[in-house]
Amino acid sequence: MIDTVIFDMDGVLIDSEPIHWQVNQDYFASIGAPILDDEYSDRFVGLPLDKMLEHIKETRGIDRSIEEMFTESMANHLEAFSNADLVAVPGIPELIRALKKKGFNLAVGSSSASQLIDIILSKIGLKEYFDITVSGFEVDHGKPAPDIFLEVASRFKVNPEHCLVIEDSALGIKAAKSANMKVVGVRNNTSGNQNLSQADLLVHGFSEESRDRIFALIEQGIS
Question: For the whole model, what pTM was predicted?
Fold first, then answer.
């Protein structure tokens, strides 16, 4: 029986990928490493920032340290999201409130930094609903490794098999399945053409119909 629901943040709780994309594109261009849209969506959506920077450094021959690039890039992200007008994805507040009312453990498991998770959850008015948040920087290995989701299960002291993950990226779905958890794949056009075929259920947004299908998967194990 599922008793814990873990939400990815970017692309699930908030349609933030366009902001991440612009911040990253501007920064990569400033250090002489511009990237194509397809490369970004295929390789970087759902990947922790440090791993993204490692790939850029290795493939573009950038003569700067990962630490320096990370500090600069993270500052850019924090500034952009602090100044942006942010809203939750339509239907997400209703889903979260319904889950909370039914007594589910709720968590965020995101590749983003803890500071960014805190800013975004506060600005979209959902911070109070989550018992736990786990950042990719708090575990040894980010997505597609299962560490983030297993850490959530460990903190709640629940069996991973009793957890459901809601994800919009191929890397996140792979991580959840590796953790032996059920997964709802969310089709988000701004996240690129993600391969969500491993998901137990695929939804296009969080309409009332989609929310009903998610509860069916949770409560009855059907889609």
Answer: 0.87
